[in-house]
Amino acid sequence: MIHENIIDLVARRFQVLGEPCRLRILQALQGGDRSVNQIVAELGATQPNVSKHLQILFDAEFVTRDRCGNNIIYSITDPVVFKLCDLVCRSTARHAAHVQKYANEGRSRKLTGPNGRHRRSRTSSIQGVH
């Protein structure tokens, strides 16, 4: 059984990863260490916004930073975050494909009757009765 304190920490880490801009920053850093300016250019975002999200990622220990002259260089602390993101992306893609398949099957059933012939569209009342 997972201890309550650990559950809270895990929930906090997932919360940090719940922001699309932070995921884009992590994706940019997957290619290697980057300065704030490089990340800003790669994402097409504003410097204050990227800096804010980098601070949150730093506080959650997803990234580390080192000063190099006038630049601060960010890097990934634990590359396991990419495995986690990959798992979630694959699961999401499978789910989206399933939803799309279900939607397509539903649309197909609405357009044809039980005998496979094309049905005419009917206008429904407010209660949805045909």
Task: Give a written overview of the molecule.
- With 130 residues, the chain is mostly helical.
- The chain has 2 domains: 4-78, Orthogonal Bundle (Arc Repressor Mutant, subunit A); 79-112.
- It is built from 5 helices and 3 strands.
- The protein has helices at 4-16, 20-30, 36-43, 47-59, 80-111, and strands at 34-35, 63-68, 71-76.
- A 3-stranded antiparallel β-sheet has the order 1-3-2.
- The radius of gyration is 23 Å and the shape is globular.
- 9% of the residues are buried.
Architecture (CATH level 2) name of the largest domain: Orthogonal Bundle
Describe the largest sheet.
Answer: 3 strands, antiparallel
- Taking strands numbered 1, 2, ... along the chain, how are they ordered across the largest sheet? 1-3-2
> What sequence of helices (H) and strands (E) makes up the elements?
HHEHHEEH
H/I helix tally:
5
User: What percent of residues are in strands?
Assistant: 5-15%
CATH homologous superfamily classification of the largest domain: Winged helix-like DNA-binding domain superfamily/Winged helix DNA-binding domain
The gross shape turns out to be globular
Gyration radius (Cα, Å) is 23 Å
> What structural category arises from helix and sheet content?
mainly alpha
- Can you count the beta strands? 3
Oligomer: single chain
Measured between the Cα atoms of the first and last residue, the distance is 53 Å
CATH topology of the largest domain: Arc Repressor Mutant, subunit A
Q: What value does the average pLDDT take?
A: 84
CATH structural class of the largest domain: Mainly Alpha
